[in-house]
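Feature request disguised as a bug report, sorry. It would help if multi-protein outputs had a clear separator. Right now it looks like this:
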Amino acid sequence: MAAEVARMPFRLPRLGWLALAGAALWCVLAVIWPSAFLRGWLAVVFLVSGSAVGTLVLCAMMQLIPGLWDEELEPSAQRVAAFTPFAALLFLPILIGAGWLYPWEASGGKGAFREVWMMPFFWGTRAILFWLFAAGYGLILQKNKASPSVVVTGLILLILFFIPIAVDWFLFLDPEAHFSGFALTVLASFFLNALCVSILLALVLGTPMKRPEILGSLLLAALLSWAYFGFMQYFITWSDNLPFGVHWYERRAVGAWGLIEMMMVALHLLPLLLLLFGPVRRGVGWISGLCCVVLAGSALEALWLVVPGETRQTLAMLAALLAAGVFGCAASSVWSIRHKGAA
């Protein structure tokens, strides 16, 4: 049987060829407009790679706080956590093209420490070390044999490590802006996306949902955390009239970005309000649908966070759509190949 399988010709699905063609097109256009296309790619990194980082937090919580949610959620969450090394590879274009993406000269005259801290070499070193740590921590979590002390220590280090990383990757696009709770706001979004992806994957895998109200309550709690951290950052900025923060928000409220901002908030708050009702929290169909709505809002959040400030914003958004399409086709192709192999 093994010999027969080995002799079978490998055929790449049509979606696989489409993914390769899209990736080639993206690379060609990125050479022509590097800054815009890297911004679009960074938005995809926020949504896709961020979900993998958020899943590490989710898996750690399930091991530290065992309960009724493990049976439904842990198998799918472990699969998403196993995606972490690939999520690190998705960051490679940002690492290679950081010179076109970030305003390195803005750190000049800001003090010796900041000039050294934001040197491209140290910036890249921090990114590489973070992904190595995240991938290693993911391997520890997948074994399910680590002691609670190891899991909690790794979780604390992951969050502490992520605080400067969030600033490096996303806030440094606007070097004059700085928020004390920015990393926690981003991490809350990553965790929310990870929870939604894990729930949807569990349904795709056919995991029986014996207690859907638990997943509905978890989704409600994650949405409340997202709303709290996002609102507090906004409230502190405007109540204290902090110029750098006001400018950062104003840039994201002008023109079409104001509409995108309202849609982003609505696609998060509407599920939050609906989940306050018991029948919605207990309905598997409701939960899966609301997870899709939240992920759509998170896609808008990624664009809203990353693209403003780019001179070619339309190109950046098209680059994000193209990159997301490439990733979707590639993921569907891999899924098809694995299922054919299993059959």
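(second protein starts here, but nothing in the output says so)
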Amino acid sequence: MKKYILILFCILSTVILIIGCQTKEGTTTKYLNTFNEGQKIAKENRYSLKKDKSEYDLELDIKDDHVFSMIVSSCKEGGYDENIIEKNKNNFKISTYQLNEHSKFNDGIVTLSLIVSENNSIIGAFLNYEGYTPSITSVKFTENLIKK
């Protein structure tokens, strides 16, 4: 009886280990794809992301209608389809990465935020100039960026 319990325990432990490893790998792959897409957007617009790949904690209340409307408007100016963003309003994640560049006037942090759908595709992107009001702009608005 003890042998059966030990064998069952080993099998169960192996299954849990395999499932846990697959979940972690999938998360890492999604993260790298998001960062790589962010690098492409940054390169197209002549700025760059910090190399550490860590996500920046952007404090935006996306449930606020005014903030959401600014995000949609900025994404539209950047060439994204506003209807897709609106359709996914309650089902997306925002991944934000800090730029190497800073804002020209207050030397503040500038971040690139990517709107990521449930199926891990980028459906929108915008820049956030910390310390400005409004702080949300199109990915193409680079006049206030300086290299640091």
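Even a blank line would do. Unrelated, but nice: The longest helix spans residues 2-44.
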